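Recap quiz, item 2
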Amino acid sequence: MSEPIILVIDDDPQVLAAIRRDLKARYQTEYRVLAAGSGESALETVRELKTRGDALAMLISDQRMPGMLGVDVLGRCRELYPLARRVLLTAYSDIQAAIRAINEVRLDHYLEKPWDPPEERLYPAVDDLLSAWHAEYRPEATGIRVVGHPWSPLSYAVKDLLGSNLIPYRWLEAGRDPDAQALMDSGNVKTSELPAVFFETGVVLRKPNTREITEHLGLTREAKHELYPLIIVGAGPAGLAAAVYGAAEGIRTLLLDGHGPGGQACASSRIENYLGFPAGISGGDLTRRAVAQAQRLGAEFLTPVEVTSVSIEGGYKRLILRDGREMVARAVLAATGMTYREHPAEGIGALAGAGVYYGAAVTEANSCRGRRVMIVGGGNSAGQSAVYLSRFASEVHLIVRRIDLNETMSHYLVEQIRQLPNIRIRSAMAIERVEGDGRLERVWLRSAGSDSLIAEEADALFVFIGARPHTDWLPTTVLRNEKGFILTGRDLLVLDEFPRFWKEDREPLPLETSIAGLFAAGDVRAGAMNRVASAVGEGSMAVKLVYDYLSRT
Ligand SMILES: Cc1cc2nc3c(=O)[nH]c(=O)nc-3n(C[C@H](O)[C@H](O)[C@H](O)COP(=O)(O)OP(=O)(O)OC[C@H]3O[C@@H](n4cnc5c(N)ncnc54)[C@H](O)[C@@H]3O)c2cc1C
């Protein structure tokens, strides 16, 4: 962050230059001294400072200025920077106005002109005021700030995009966080224009779409080459590991992800069972390290870039992207993982992103502060999310179909949950219906063996049930099991239809699909272990097999 600012305001250029000179002489090593020639331009400057997240320590304004009086300027600035010290520069004749302003705009001091010598009449007062400001001052939220309504799907999409791409930001809830209104005023943002994203550069994006945000963040979406020996689709643990090994083996490797790096692992607040991290590691931290490692070794990474289909042309694979662009590879690794299935409860589709979330506990945790949330699912991911959300929410209700949670969740998690007073396990329960006017308000629950429904208030519902593999982008000639997961290697040999698709004079390699040169690794693959370590293992192993394939063709 840059130094705190002292802003002086006077319409008389000579007085302005003189006070600025004197202030700079003493304070310029620790403060930036800015000047404004009118009340209007001072307000403009203060709004810009607020939008950028700069610290304003003091305002010194002349009282008599055309257009706007000094006390009015100071009063208006107080709305944006309530802690900044306010000093009125007065002629002897204005002292009564200055005294009145002490109450009206909570003036901290009035300074009579002329202030010579400054060592006696300026610096002692300014020193005192600055040291009082320092004692109270808390740094402004800097970096990217997002102001919006908590249950708006658009706000959720913005937070999800930033979070998935590991971009730090501060969330300010309109109507709840006092800084939110000040920031909106500084950027002249109306409530109807939310969510708004405030960048440190002073740029404010209103109701932005993905493209506008990614352009401002400088996320790379353009590939450097037209043809790659290896393109990896999906940058979860499997894809990231493959990118590290591919680049390390000297294969020109392109990694694409439709969302952001990390995949499901990014939804995990603490992975406790990954080798080498005895205290556990968050999915975000592991992902940050993996992306840096893959890029340092030379892998190219583009995001958000979603692959919508692939066609096979001779030995080449042509990938079609959501925005219509195309990319060509000799070998492709499908590492597109899976997501949670949509819950069948009535009304749930209409509230997705507006209180109903699929596996998004980390992104939405802040919005749940002091609120009542429900989590549906009995697996480890539901359990981990319950533990994590219990640090924010007032109450967490874990809705599980079975009677005994130990049947589906690891013992260590069940024990952790039992020790947290604000988590309530609601076993043998199912969600039948959800309701709310524009956002989730109520959940209807049914106990096993009962016909009656009970309604309960809920601010958010997190769904962690059943898995659906991300395979829509692949042709039907990529054979799958009955649940839609991709079959690879020797598992293919037992299928009656396999010989119709496979025309090579060799068996498929271990992670190879029914299309030669198209490999699959991680959770998208039939028989995967659904663990970070196994996805990483398969991703690394796939590169050796890709290498074999490339050397044969
Ligand atoms: C809340 C939670 C907690 C977990 N905790 C643990 C734990 O503690 N320990 C553990 O070992 N495992 C844990 N897991 C499981 C683990 O995260 C997964 O097994 C692992 O992430 C699978 O990795 P993957 O690379 O195969 O797929 P994913 O992680 O699913 O990544 C797939 C990636 O592909 C991208 N993608 C999908 N389709 C496309 C497309 N068409 N174009 C471009 N990109 C696409 C997605 O955006 C995603 O980034 C947890 C999972 C969850 C949800």
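The pocket of flavin-adenine dinucleotide is lined by residues 233-239, 256-259, 263-265, 267-268, 271-273, 306-307, 335-338, 359, 380-381, 384-385, 470, 473, 522-523, 530-533, 535 (CB under 6 Å).
The chain has a mean pLDDT of 92.
End of item.
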